[in-house]
Amino acid sequence: MLGSLILLWLCISLLAFLVRTRRPKNFPPGPGPIPIFGNLLQLNLENPMPDLERLSVRYGKVFSLYFGGRPAVILNGMSVMKEALIGKAVDFAGRPNGLLLNHLTQGKGVIMADYGPSWREHRRFALMTLRNFGLGKQSMEERILGEISYVCAHLEASAGKSIDPQTLFHNASCDIICSIMFGSRYEYDHDFFQAMIKMMAENSKIANGPWGMVYDTMPLLRNLPLPFQRALRDYHTVKLHVLGIIAEHRATRVPREPRDLIDSYLDEMEKRGENCAPFDDGQMIIMLLDLLFAGTDTTSNTIRTAVLYFMTHTDVQERCQQEIDEVLEGKAQVSFEDRHKMPYMQAVIHEVQRVASTLPLSVFHCTTKDTELMGYQIPRGTLIIPNLTSVLYEEDQWKFPYDFNPSNFLNDQGQFEKPEAFMPFSVGPRTCLGEGLARMELFLILVTLLRRFQFIWPEDGGEPDFSPVFGVTQAPKPYRMTVQLRGGLTN
Ligand code: HEM
Ligand SMILES: *[C@@H]1O[C@H](CO)[C@@H](O)[C@H](O)[C@H]1NC(C)=O
Ligand SMILES: *[C@@H]1O[C@H](CO)[C@@H](O)[C@H](O)[C@H]1NC(C)=O
Predict the structure, then answer these.
(1) Residue 428 sits in which domain range?
(2) Where is the signal peptide, in residue numbers (predicted)?
(3) Total domains, the chain
(4) What is the Cα–Cα distance from 289 to 238, expressed in whole angstroms?
(5) In the predicted model, what is the mean pLDDT of the chain?
(6) Which residue has better confidence, 403 or 5?
(7) Which of 161, 314, 435, 458 could disulfide-pair with 482, CB 3.0 to 4.6 Å?
């Protein structure tokens, strides 16, 4: 008797869950969800890509999945991406709540802030300031070139040896952001720098991995002493240190003569007076950490992809060097302006970004209201996953969708041309805020390195492996490289 009562109760609660996770009317199609888990058990969480590929072949360009009880819609292909992120820009410009990342950032800052005035004003402020307005005497370009000189010194010291360049490029990208935000770079072995690098690495590992998934889908488990508690704690430690840096800036700043992003933010608060909302210290810290997170792995993984292709496509490397030598003849340093005279180099950098597809699933979006896409009904608050890889490798959009070939960005006259499907920074109102900075970094760093060094696949390097490691930011597998100084240079 008791047994059958329990059974009955189980069936009823199961039914209740099934009803709860049933797709809304006219929702994009997808596999049937299981209560509590949604479709999670149907995916290999270590690397869901192959499973997802299967689903998109079966269900089409717009399909849906359940993460626990939460429905998500996946967008594939350029026409869908444009209709959603540009055509219905506002409807699709939200960010999801209730994820581990939201709890770290408390909905403040830029990346995870939902669509609204605080996000808009911080985004505008950061864009303006990064565009070199109000960033003081040292230009963005000088800051980047300054960091490059440390990278070059390091590589010169290792010339002829085979090294893994991962941490070097990572440290350099991080330091460029530090210099913009805090006014100075750090030595790579500085205590705070080390703590920051470690926090970012561990937190992205946790947020990427199964524990992040557990946190995001099962709210009941959040207070247990599981690894995501460490993510929260480490984030807090770095936050406290940044608070200290802000206090130091307050004590030493000269109003309206900003040395860096923090000074500019303090100026902005002062300009707005008593009621400077939504600008305050809490928002500033999260905005700073956002830029650090968003600007480090992305840039350094792209540089690592570039070097991997230089070493394995020596004809491409040589042709870049030829163009660089010609254009920069007699000049001590490259400047960002020089890109207009380097169509081939530009094509190579864009092609690297295309094949690297550094943020394959962009950053997740969320619908801000009930909306419609490709004839489907999508309610407000639905998680939206833009599959940028599907556009960067889309068959009808590229001359050579599956190869590494700079001709994808060159027209018949050998001029640089950017197809519309080039969207590694995403599109629409949420498009990458650091695109200008990232493009400047990639150009200055790669040109300087190619001018100075020859990149060689070392004999002990094994077979090159181009398949990426899956993650929120995708990266090539670790590899080793040998650098050789190029002869005949004046500097
Ligand atoms: C090669 C390097 C980079 C790539 C491929 C990249 C790509 C992206 C992508 C795909 C997004 C998501 C856009 C969306 O939600 O639709 C994004 C957002 C963002 N990126 Fe980047 N990014 C790069 C470098 C940087 C740098 C250097 C910075 C800053 C200093 C930066 C700051 C941001 C910020 C703040 C956002 C959030 C924008 C918002 O939510 O409004 N990124 N990036
Ligand atoms: C994204 O697109 C790529 C290329 O078309 C595909 O291999 C991958 O499975 C897609 N991912 C998702 C989540 O749909
Ligand atoms: C990069 O920084 C980390 C952390 O400070 C350090 O352990 C590593 O040795 C640095 N790498 C290089 C190449 O300097």
Answers:
(1) 24-485
(2) 1-21
(3) 1
(4) 9
(5) 90
(6) 403
(7) 458
